[in-house]
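User: I'm writing a tutorial on reading structure tokens. Could you give me a worked example: one chain, its sequence, then its tokens, then a sentence or two explaining what the tokens reveal?
Assistant: Sure. Here is the example chain.
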Amino acid sequence: MDYENSKLVLASDQVESGAVRWRSPSNIALVKYWGKHGDQLAKNPSVSFTLDSAATDTTLSYCAKARTDEGVSVELYLDASRREDFEERTRIYFNRLLPIYPFLKQLDFKIETSNSFPHSAGIASSASGMSALALCLVDLENQFFGGLESGGFDMRKASYLSRLGSGSACRSVYGHAALWGTLGDIENSHEEYAISVADQLHDDFKGFHDDILIISAGEKSVSSRAGHGLMDTNHYADLRYGQAKRRCSEMMQVLSSGDVERFGELLESEALTLHALMMASSPPYLLLEPNTINAIRRVQQWRAETKHPLYFTLDAGPNLHLLYPKSIEEPVRSFVREELLAYCKDGQYIADRMGNGPDKLEVSE
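And here are its predicted structure tokens:
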């Protein structure tokens, strides 16, 4: 794909100050990707559910810049506090996008962003954050250059741009469920952007819940970026990539057929495989906390006792995602409140579920 467009240049003296605002959700990978190549491309395909409550709210304000030869200009505020470290990452990201959006160097930008969940704790804050920012940029393109006239909001382009910022972010621009990566049996699947697979979900998976137990709200000791890099020297990497591709194909079949039991088996194996890869890295590292293990064991016991289809998964962090159909919401929520909150940091958990995807919001005055 080639989105480069040297024509997307503004007449600076005609630009009025303004802002766009998007809320984009996190997503939880059912089959994980771990390991990259090329320009933010995944070594294996992945499939995810889009969440609802766990999301990032981003406002991108802009005004014409007096001089365009000074590079990209960005100020970034997370929860109202200026973050120069995030500014630098965003500046690098915008510079990478200049061949696609040359107008980025013509404007001064202010980004105000906030998460509904702890940042860098393994709940894919980069996925929601970078997808929200990419959506703002595509929105600006539409406003400045009339992109809407050519067929509506370009979610595929938003997914592509999101991926350049954070791989898993490309899945967050779609509601319900998304696939990233090439699978021979899935039409239009691609490694450069994700596609929606919501229309392939069996009714038993629609409205699935995801309750997130906040075992730890602290930042991870090893970032996802570093973890992906360590796959380059992981002895098990090639075996994993083959396994993940096979599992992704099987997961798509499971989601279409409504086989909830097999879904749970694949889901939990994927979670533990991800963390096994971390422990098999060089140097090895461990992101699980003792209460992560305690909660997993109690979930397994409760499922055996009640026969309810409650399953767990993990992202690259210690916090536990509990996935289950909406039909057992009441008993699961009682179980979480009565038994699992004891394992959570300050009793924190997020009662989430499958969501409809990003929303464009009104800009606050």
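What the tokens reveal: The chain has eight helices and 14 strands. The first helix runs from residue 84 to 96.
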